Amino acid sequence: MEISALCHNTRPDGPLLPQEEAAFSLLEELGIAYDRVSSEPADTMEKCAAISEVLGVPICKNLFLCNRQKTQFYLLCMGPGKPFHTKDLSPQIGSARLSFAPEEFLWDLLRCTPGSASVLGLANDQDHRIRLLMEREVFEAEYLSCHPCICTSSLKLKMADVLEKLLPRTGHQITVVDL
Q1: What is the structure's pLDDT at 111?
Q2: Cβ-contact 154, 55 below 8 angstroms
Q3: Number of helices (H), then strands (E), in the chain
Q4: Number of neighbours of residue 178 by Cβ within 10 angstroms
Q5: What is the pTM of this model?
Q6: Which end of the chain is less enclosed by CB atoms within 10 A, N or C?
Q7: Whose CA is closest to 121, among 108, 111, 133?
Q8: In angstroms, rounded to a whole number, what is the distance separating the alpha carbons of residues 157 and 51?
Q9: For the chain, how far is it from start to end, CA to CA, in angstroms?
Q10: What is the pLDDT of residue 83?
């Protein structure tokens, strides 16, 4: 997979999709510094592994989940190497029968495409229908790596900026979970 050189606080060249434009504008507005690489779509964790090497941090695995009734939604940020087992998560959040949320909810609530779910998409969840879940190791890391709502770019953000600038702006609280 071809990956661009590391860029600091620089958007990709050319026109951006609206959700990508919004993500970069939000970072700039909040004064959040970032490192970025561009690549072909990195929509699997296998493809993200090569990007992680260039960024110097593992790309977070972001899972968009819901309950069986599709009335409660969750964005789970976890380390890339861990398997996901609903039995490990369900009792910690009081929601049984978790599954991957349908693609249309991913777009309607986060303005992200499959493989691009990201904490940056929480800015689009103005009704706060999504509960942010973060694995303890990800929460305690110095950096968070994610996509800017499209999987052709990958970012490295300081976790302190996510906690102190981004999430206060979106109004989302974190539930730290152990997986």
Answers
A1: 94
A2: yes
A3: 7, 9
A4: 9
A5: 0.93
A6: N
A7: 111
A8: 14
A9: 30
A10: 87
